Structure formats: C-alpha cells, structure tokens
Amino acid sequence: MTSKPIFNAVDNAFLTERNLVKPAVNRRRLIASSLSHSEPLSSSESGGSEDPAVDARVYTLIPEFLHSKETLEWLGWTSQKAAEIWARWTTINSVEVWDDVVLEVEFLEHATGHIPYNELEDSAGDWEEHMRDWGVSSELINAIMDAEFSNVRLTESAHHWVRDTMEIRYLSLERIMRDSDSRAENRDTLNTSVVTDTASGTSNVPGHLTLYKAISTDRVRRDREGNIEIDSLVSGTPSDFRGIGGTMLYFAPDLKAAEHYRNYIKRRATTSPALIIRLSLPNAFIEGLPPHIIEFGDFWRQAIHTCRSGRNLKGNLKYLHTLPLIITPIAHSPNIAIARLQDWQQVTISHIFRLEGQQNTAVQYIFQGDDTVGQIEEVCELKVVV
Predict the structure, then answer these.
(1) Measured distance CA(6)–CA(179) in Å, rounded
(2) Which of 136, 114, 94 is nearest to 4 (CA)?
(3) According to DSSP H, which parts of 309-369 are helical?
(4) Exposed (0-12), middle (13-18) or buried (19+): which is 267, by Cβ within 10 Å?
(5) Which branch of life, at top level (predicted)?
C-alpha cells in the first residue's frame, strides 16, 4: 500500500543538505526539533550544509510515511498491536464496500478506533493494566501515568488520554507535512505555521479580565489572517456542567493551572508545541452577561454528577444550561468514575481539582452557548502566552 512521505521530495533535498533531516532508517528518520515545532529556519540553517561532527541540534525521531505501521507505533501502539491495526488498514485500503455503499475510513479514525470504551478504572495499577491489555506502548503509558500530572490525569479517563495523545501526535505529523509542502511550493524558508500573536504571560490592562487555557497548537485553527478561531477552543462533552451537546468554552483565571495542563501536553506529545491561550475580556462585558457563581455545595455536586455521567440537567437545575457564564471549581475525577457513583451525594470535596501545594481550589470560567461565544469573539483579544 503506497503512502505519501511526510517530507516533500524537493523540501527533503533542501533540508538534508542542511543537516536538518537525516536519511531514513527502517522507515523512520531523525528531524531537527525546530522542524517538529514549526519554528522558522535560522540564517545558518537556510544556508549551506554543516559539519555533522559538530552538530549541536536536538533531533526527534518520526516515521517516514504518514500512513504506515511505523506511524501507528509512533502514535503509541505496541509493535504487535500496530501490526494488527496496519493489517486491517491494508485490507480495507481506506475504503470499505458494504451493501453497495462506499464507506470512507480516515487513518486517524482507524488508528484510534481500537481504543476500547468498556473500561473500569480505580487505582493507577488498574489504568496501566487496562492500557497494556489494549496494546498501548510502555512509552505512552509512562507519559500518561507520570505522577507529576496525576491531578490532571484524574480529570478524565484512560480512554480519553490515549485518544487525545494519539490525535495530537498524528495532527503534528500532518502539520509537519503541510510545512514541508509549503516550503517546497514557495521555494523559500518561510514557515506558515509559526505563531506570531504572542504576548507575555500576565496582563494588567485596566478594566479587563484575563483568563487562560492550555491547548496543543495542532488543535488550534486560524483564519486566513492568522487569527485564532475561537470555535477551535470549544470543549467536547461530557464535561463539567454539560452532559450532551452544547457549546462550552472553558478558561481559568490561574496562569499556574494553565501551565500545569500545558506541561502535561508536552509530556505526552513532544512534537506538538503546547500553547497557553490568553483571553482578555472587558470587565463591562463580563458584568453584562452576568456571571453566575456556583461554589462547592449540593448544586455543584448534583450538576457534576449529572453532567459527567453524560446527561443534561433537569428539574430545578435545568436553568444552569441557560446561563451564559458560570464561575465554579474544576471537577477532579474521570467521567466514568463519577458515573459509577450511586448518586450525587457521593460526590465529595475530593472531587475538586487542586494544584499541588495550593490550598485553594482551581476555578474555571464556563462560557455557554453559540451566542455567548459569538459575542466573546467580537470583544475579546486572544494571544499566545510566551
């Protein structure tokens, strides 16, 4: 089965001459980390070749071909599981015919479609056992289970983190491929993926509220002018305060919390630059929504138990779905673990997310609804924190 190389032939010759990519070995190759992070080439890199003996660059190993068994292993499957998934892929050859209906199958969808949903997770040992049984590689298991990020890990399930990591890794390969095609087409060293709308971490603009969100650069979409599309920052469901559907935009006022989330992305996907998006909104806009504060208590416990179980709120809590802005503690536990609780009364203070070394609970701003997100887009400033 023929697969397109990640590096365009013209670009490959250009980069090889400058020692930015190494010759492929066993259908894998080392590339300079500047390429994996879509950084602009320096004057020395865009010039002549360099002496490999004095090369001080950091290199990253990636697969040679986008659709390949090597890519499946690189995403985080064991060699044996990758061979099984690849054999299935070559059989269907990206198209299946069933009752005269042609079904298109995306490679990433096929790769992540082998992550089971029927999981029972309690202790860290349970997580590791499940992932090993699924065929997840030790490298990915170790990245997900890193004890430094256990508080973040326990906000979601093993299924979520395996899928999320594999998706980010694959999207980074697609970005590297787009960069290569762009360089070959333009015949220069410009890189269209470089983020230019950067800012310092903190902001003290009078009359404005500053919020933060960690996200992989490969999940962020931009318009033709290079501006961040706010729709690409919307979270999926089930999540805090939404079980099914809806448009939910989650940000945090604590930069340290966002940095912690960003570091977990870095730990799991080294080729995908992890960003912190800084959202700046006029105080007058926030006050005009207005914000609705929900502290830890019976309302919070009922809402978290219902929504994290994949159901929307009903009865006296249904009105919460209509609020444009909720300020509330971040929940700490995978959806499946909360869903297994007998009722909302089993949700306790331990289900609130805290940063290590901090006594205060981590707070989130939840913006709800298409209209609210559209209004935010009109008045906000989005920057990437450096």
Answers:
(1) 10
(2) 94
(3) 335-339
(4) middle
(5) Eukaryota
Taking the CA atoms of 317, 318, 322 and 327 in sequence, report the sign of the dihedral they define: positive
Q: Residues 299-324: pLDDT tens digits?
A: 999 999 998 888 888 898 889 889 99
Nearest alpha carbon to residue 37 among 57, 18, 16: 57
Q: Measured between alpha carbons, how far is 89 from 194 in angstroms, rounded to an integer?
A: 33
Instruction: Check if the beta carbon of residue 70 is closer than 8 Å to that of residue 27.
Output: yes
Is there a contact between 39 and 194 (Cβ–Cβ < 8 Å)?
Answer: yes
| Length of the chain in terms of residues written | 386
Provide the pairing of β-strand 325-329 with 292-293. Answer: parallel
Region of 140 please: left (phi>0), alpha (psi -120 to 50) or beta. Answer: alpha
- 216 phi and psi, to 5 degrees? -70, 140
Distances (CA, A) of 156 to 20, 81, 332: 37, 24, 8
- Say what the alpha-carbon torsion angle 208, 212, 218, 222 is, to the nearest 10 degrees: -10
Rounded Cα–Cα distance for residues 214 and 224 (Å)? 23
Tokens of 299: 């309302």
CA distance 44 to 47: 5
In this structure, what are the phi and psi dihedrals at residue 134, rounded to the nearest 5 degrees? Answer: -70, -20
Rounded Cα distance, 200 and 112, in Å: 36
Total Cβ atoms within 10 A of residue 297: 8
pLDDT of residue 377 exceeding 80: yes
Return d(Cα 371, Cα 364) in angstroms, integer. 20
How many percent of the chain have pLDDT more than 90?
62
Ramachandran angles phi, psi of 355, nearest 5°: -80, 145
Return the amino acid letter for 266: K
The arrangement of strands across the sheet holding 363-368 comes to 248-251, 363-368, 325-329, 292-293
Which among 141-150, 313-322, 351-360 has the top mean pLDDT? 141-150
Res 367 pLDDT > 80: yes
Q: At what angle do helices 124-134 and 158-186 cross, to 10 degrees?
A: 60
Q: Which residues contact 192 (CB under 8 A, 6 or more apart)?
A: 178, 179, 182
How far apart CA 52 and CA 47 sit, in angstroms, is 15
Pick the closest to residue 155 from 297, 352, 296 (CA basis): 352
